[in-house]
Design brief:
There is one protein chain. By secondary structure, the chain is of the alpha+beta class. It is built from nine helices and eleven strands. It has helices at 4-10, 52-67, 115-135, 149-153, 170-187, 226-235, 243-255, 265-279, 289-309; strands at 19-25, 29-34, 39-44, 75-76, 85-87, 90-96, 101-102, 194-197, 206-209, 212-215, 222-225. The strands form three sheets. Strands 1, 2, 3, 4, 5 and 6 form a six-stranded antiparallel sheet that branches. Helix 6 packs across helix 8 and helix 8 runs antiparallel to helix 9. The model has no long low-confidence stretch (mean pLDDT 97). Keywords: Kinase, Transferase. Belongs to the pseudomonas-type ThrB family.
């Protein structure tokens, strides 16, 4: 499927496109661009989701990570030297195309030749991303969504006021409000490892190519708690039959590259569960959203209840 706007956009880059095909349409629209020499991903960003400054910051960060040797899509500058191009007010960028298959898909059990090794490697990749980000000198004007206390449980969280999801029962609303207060108190105590994170390392955003892992979709990346990075992946493998083994492998892989205190990991798993309860509210018109909303609420209810009842030691 071709697209007239995408055809206009690709002309902003010095590439000889022989094919521009729409291959994905989720948060962003992604086109596969084929040239005689290479294949690229042309992204059209969802209108109104990110500012031009936020997207330019994302691309600058990705470029720095590529330079540091991480495996991720490399931003390609347009003919005018800018990585972000505006075409009829639509935001476009061009990235290198990476080979491989998704690590998995939402709601489908993982199918990996060596899952323990893969998650150990993923933990290492996370740690390397954090180390490279810490070593990078953030440029003036850099702005990205913040996954700090305000961004997770403040008055205007990044993914919405989960405790006000209109489908919550009175008991669920009370539960989430109690959790929010307890989580706020815990986050205010002591120091927490903080810096740039991907913030959405789900199985769909990890490509596996032989032994190599590629990290994609930095849409939500920004300053945040490093444990939130680990929690995002761990929360979404809870239903796997070997989840404890995968979690241990992920943490061991991370700690083989970078030290991290995991005392409050259960809190961040609960926080991640709650973000989805807020996220789905603005997407209820999508196919399957009603069922996913119920699932998100049930998952978060279970995790938050466990965290509160255990005194914060497990979920």
């Amino acid at each position: 499927m071709t697209d007239a706007l995408a055809q206009l956009a690709i002309a902003r880059w010095d590439v000889d496109a022989t094919s521009v095909e729409l291959v994905a349409e989720r948060e962003n629209r992604v086109f596969r661009v084929i040239t005689p020499d290479a294949t690229y991903a042309l992204r059209q960003h969802r209108s109104g989701y990110r500012t031009d400054a936020q997207l330019s910051s994302e691309l600058a960060w990705m470029k720095s990570l590529d330079t540091a040797g991480l495996s991720l899509p490399r931003p390609i500058a347009g003919s005018d030297g800018a990585h972000l191009q505006l075409v009829n007010e639509a935001q476009f960028d061009l990235l290198t195309w990476l080979s491989g298959r998704q690590l998995g898909a939402f709601g489908t059990p993982l199918d990996l030749d060596d899952p323990e090794r893969t998650f150990h490697d993923l933990g290492q990749a996370m740690a390397r991303l954090h180390k490279a980000s810490d070593a990078w000198t953030v440029p003036a004007g850099f702005t990205r969504p913040r996954w700090d206390a305000d961004g997770l449980i403040g008055e205007t969280p990044q993914w919405g006021r989960f405790w006000e999801n209109p489908t919550l029962t009175p008991d669920q609303k009370t539960l989430f409000e109690t959790f929010r207060a307890e989580a706020t108190a815990t986050l205010s105590e002591g120091q927490h490892d903080f810096g740039l994170i991907h913030a959405d390392l789900l199985r769909e955003n990890i490509l596996i190519d032989g032994r190599d892992l590629h990290l994609i979709d930095f849409d939500d990346g920004g300053p945040g708690y490093r444990l939130f990075e680990l929690a995002t992946t761990i929360f979404r493998i809870r239903e796997e039959t070997n989840a404890p083994v995968l979690q241990s492998a992920l943490i061991e892989g991370y700690q083989s590259e970078r030290t991290i205190n995991i005392t409050h990991l259960p809190l961040f798993i609960a926080l991640r569960a709650c973000t989805y309860v807020g996220w789905i509210v603005t997407r209820m018109e999508l196919q399957g959203a009603q069922e996913r909303n119920k699932q998100h609420i049930n998952n978060a209810t279970q995790v938050v209840t466990n965290w509160l009842n255990s005194g914060g030691t497990h979920v």
